[in-house]
Amino acid sequence: MGGQVSLPVFALLSAVVLLGTVFQVSIGFGLGLLAAPVIALVAPSLVPVVLLLSTAVTASVLLLDGAHVNLRGAGWALLGRVPGVIAGAALVALLPARWLALCVAGVVVAGVVASVRGFRPAPTRRAVALAGMASGLMGTATSIGGPPMALVWQRMTGPELRSTMSGFFLAGSLMSLVALAAVGAVHADSLRYSALLAPAAAAGVLLARPLSDKLNVGRARAVATVLALAGAILLTVRQFI
C-alpha cells in the first residue's frame, strides 16, 4: 500500500502512534508493540516508519531522563544487538511480505506469553547480550524489539528503566535503519509518512511526561499487552482471508 493512504487509515495510524508513544515514554516500550501490527495490517510497506519514529521518540526520552542510563547494561545489550540486526535485515530481504507480517504477529504473541508466564531472567551480562541479539533481530525484521529488553530489565523502574531502554533503542534503531537501508527496505514513502506522523509522536511525548509519574506501571503494561495482542490476532487473521 505504497504512495498514498486514505484519510481514515491515516487517522488510525496517528492515533496508534500517539498511544504507542505515550506507553513508550511512560514505561520504556510500546510504540513498536502497538504500531507495528496495525501498520503491517493496513499499510505493510510502511512498517519501517515505526523504527524511524521510535528513533526520534527515544532520543527525546534520553534527553529528558539521560542521567539515569545504566551504561553497562546498555553496552552489553548493544554488543549483542549487532549480529541480531544483521540477521533481521537478511530476513527482510529474503522473506515475502506475508511471512514478515506473520513474524510481526508471532513476535507480539511470544512477548505476551513470556510476560504472562512471569518469565524473569536475571540481568546477567550473558542474558542482556542475548536479549540484545533477540531485540536486534526482532526489531529490524518486525520493528518490535521491546519485549526481550523489557523482560531482562523488568527489575528496573521509573527513570532508570525509561532512560536505559531509550539509550539502547536509540543506538539500536539507528543500527537497524542502516541495515534496512542497505537492503532497500527504507524508501521515500517511509520517510514521508514518518514526517506526517511525527506530530502524533510529538503529542504522545508531551502527554506522557505529566502522566509518567501517575501511571500504574503494571496496569499500563497490561493495557499495552492486551492492545498489542488484539492487533497481532487481527494481523494473523488478515493473512488467511
UniProtKB/TrEMBL annotation:
<feature type="transmembrane region" description="Helical">
    <location>
        <begin position="218"/>
        <end position="237"/>
    </location>
</feature>
<feature type="transmembrane region" description="Helical">
    <location>
        <begin position="165"/>
        <end position="186"/>
    </location>
</feature>
<keyword id="KW-0472">Membrane</keyword>
<dbReference type="InterPro" id="IPR002781">
    <property type="entry name" value="TM_pro_TauE-like"/>
</dbReference>
<dbReference type="InterPro" id="IPR052017">
    <property type="entry name" value="TSUP"/>
</dbReference>
<keyword id="KW-0812">Transmembrane</keyword>
<feature type="transmembrane region" description="Helical">
    <location>
        <begin position="99"/>
        <end position="116"/>
    </location>
</feature>
<keyword id="KW-1133">Transmembrane helix</keyword>
<feature type="transmembrane region" description="Helical">
    <location>
        <begin position="34"/>
        <end position="64"/>
    </location>
</feature>
<keyword id="KW-0813">Transport</keyword>
<feature type="transmembrane region" description="Helical">
    <location>
        <begin position="128"/>
        <end position="153"/>
    </location>
</feature>
<feature type="transmembrane region" description="Helical">
    <location>
        <begin position="76"/>
        <end position="93"/>
    </location>
</feature>
<dbReference type="Pfam" id="PF01925">
    <property type="entry name" value="TauE"/>
</dbReference>
<feature type="transmembrane region" description="Helical">
    <location>
        <begin position="193"/>
        <end position="212"/>
    </location>
</feature>
<protein>
    <recommendedName>
        <fullName>Probable membrane transporter protein</fullName>
    </recommendedName>
</protein>
<keyword id="KW-1003">Cell membrane</keyword>
<dbReference type="GO" id="GO:0005886">
    <property type="term" value="C:plasma membrane"/>
</dbReference>
<comment type="similarity">
    <text>Belongs to the 4-toluene sulfonate uptake permease (TSUP) (TC 2.A.102) family.</text>
</comment>
